[in-house]
Design goal:
five-stranded antiparallel β-sheet
Length: 190
């Protein structure tokens, strides 16, 4: 297994729709194993293929949940259906969300509290489950990556301004920037 560098906002693969996985083979299973290794080394709870520069529709997760879903898994070519996102202002503490591709930054974001996720595992077997709470948030976050969206793209105007300032101050927003889990300092201080 190989730990991959994580792309930072501005890398084109993060900002375009990923392509469906067409072949469930040994190369895909190796990619999935590498993604788990990279996610674990980065102390993340999810990692989408575009975050390591691969424009395919899959993500891995590692998150305890109350939904009876295994705490570690992969979703290939997923679909997601959610309840309505609350229209209220996100809570600065309870709704703070971060992303490995916006390293070290977090901003409040309202998300749906329930999601139904379907797709396939790494061998092509169907996967279908419901997610609630923070697990639902994780599923929505990772799914967004597959559509070329980062969580900062969904922020309300107040937090979007702060996010843009942070991206500018960190000199992100341009192609070619990455950080290496296990080599570079953990941007979230785990």
């Amino acid at each position: 297994m190989t730990v991959h560098p994580i792309t930072i906002t501005g890398e084109p693969v993060l900002h375009r729709r990923a392509q469906p996985v067409e072949t469930f083979d040994a190369a895909l299973r190796t990619l999935i194993a590498d993604m788990f290794e990279t996610m674990d080394e980065a102390n993340g709870v999810g990692l989408a293929a575009p975050q390591i520069g691969v424009g395919l529709r899959l993500f891995v997760y590692g998150m305890e949940n109350d939904d009876g879903v295994p705490p570690r898994g992969v979703l290939v070519n997923p679909t997601i259906v959610t309840t309505k996102v609350p229209g209220s202002e996100p809570d600065p503490e309870d709704d703070a969300e971060g992303c490995l591709s916006v390293p070290g930054e977090s901003f409040p974001l309202a998300r749906a509290g329930w999601a139904r996720v379907t797709g396939f595992d790494g061998d092509g077997a169907p996967v279908d489950f419901e997610a609630t709470g923070w697990f639902a948030r994780c599923m929505q976050h990772e799914y967004d990556h597959l559509d070329g969206k980062l969580f900062v793209d969904r922020l309300n105007d107040r937090y979007l301004r702060k996010a843009r300032r942070s991206i500018r101050n960190n000199a992100w927003g341009v192609p070619g920037l990455t950080w290496m889990p296990g080599v570079d300092p953990d941007p979230f201080g785990h």
